[in-house]
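User: My collaborator sent over this chain with a note saying "see what the structure looks like." That's all I know about it. Can you take a look?
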Amino acid sequence: MNNSEQYPEVWDVFIRDARNIEQTEEGKIHGKYVIHHPSKHEWIYANDPGVLFEKFKDAWYEPNLDSPSVYGKIQYIVTHF
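Assistant: Without extra context I'll predict from the sequence alone. Here is the result:
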């Protein structure tokens, strides 16, 4: 099973928002690829798109009440109540 089948909601956002910044000064410092963190006001960087997806997926499913995903809200409730 591939990522688009296993994590369809995350994959759609990743495909829409991930950017290749390899040719920019920021890309030379932080990493070739970037995507905005789903629940924080920061960026996620990586030198490989597969690694970037894994970091983004982990951030997406991070237990957080303010997370855009239902899974994140459920995990927050389960771990805190």
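A starting point for your reply to your collaborator: The helical segments are 3-6, 8-17, 25-30, 49-60, 70-80.
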